[in-house]
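Recall from the previous lesson that a structure prediction takes nothing but the amino acid sequence as input. Here we apply that procedure to Fructose-bisphosphate aldolase from Saccharothrix syringae. The sequence below is the only information supplied.
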Amino acid sequence: MPIATPEVYAEMLDRAKANEFAYPAINVTSSETLNAALRGFAEAESDGIIQVSTGGAEFASGTKVKDMVTGAVALAEFAHVVAEKYPVNIALHTDHCPKDKLDGYVRPLVAISQERVDRGLNPLFQSHMWDGSAVPLDENLKIAADLLDLTAKAKIILEIEVGVVGGEEDGVAHEINEKLYTSPEDYLKTVEALGAGEKGRYLVAATFGNVHGVYKPGNVKLRPEILKQGQDVVAEKLGLPAGSKPFDLVFHGGSGSLLEEIHEAVSYGVIKMNIDTDTQYAFTRPIVGHMFANYDGVLKVDGEVGNKKAYDPRSYLKAAEQGMAARIAQACEHLKSSGRMIAG
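The prediction returns the following tokens.
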């Protein structure tokens, strides 16, 4: 299927919310990892989200070029062509973008999509993330409000972060402390600044102990009930029935989370869960296995010529794609609840 239109993406998110499941959002940095993501979603018979961080986009442009917009556009255009061969809906998203990179990443990409929309086309990306976790909340929300105005006009969904995800990702690091928990006041300020959808749709990456990086199960102290508290306090402010979930929530920093914690978070309105660390390993592990098993073929040992079939990148990237795809399919299964993730 073609990359999701704005209408299809909205329907995907609505379906997840109504049926209490979440889409894995898979970070990619190359055409090969993007192919793996597409394959994984297809094998799971699931719609999904593919996303590109600032560092991933810079890498994708080439280590000599190192231009974020160039890399992001290249991956998005590649996805628009290749995704048509798969029987699932795929949305394209850009991941964490801090304040100092907005003018060099998100704003130019929104402008590209606006130009496309003005010509009667669909936006290049379906959503973008503004990561204001490193600035005071009032400033975070002011920037978010300005961006929401731009993204709404370009038929794009905005993602924001309210609170702080600990650990490190793409060179952005935060301490692991009490700031990892979004407060009820934070949720209220968010809806006061951005509205409840009338100004444009947005996703909220609220924090409840999330940590980026690699942690064994049980080492990350999550408190999913914080998500419910936030939904409840905003529902009351908006005059919605008890149990309503006014926010579309995003789960960041999920490596090492217990499956029951993930399911609890999804039940409180999480419809998107970012996955990067696990899929990086799933992609790299088969390559390592190939190199160890074929060391005398990939290296010209003792003056020999090696084995061209062993050092042809296709020989190990094929296995890497398969390994990453399998991990994505597993993630789709884990994020199912009462609903179906199958393409609508």
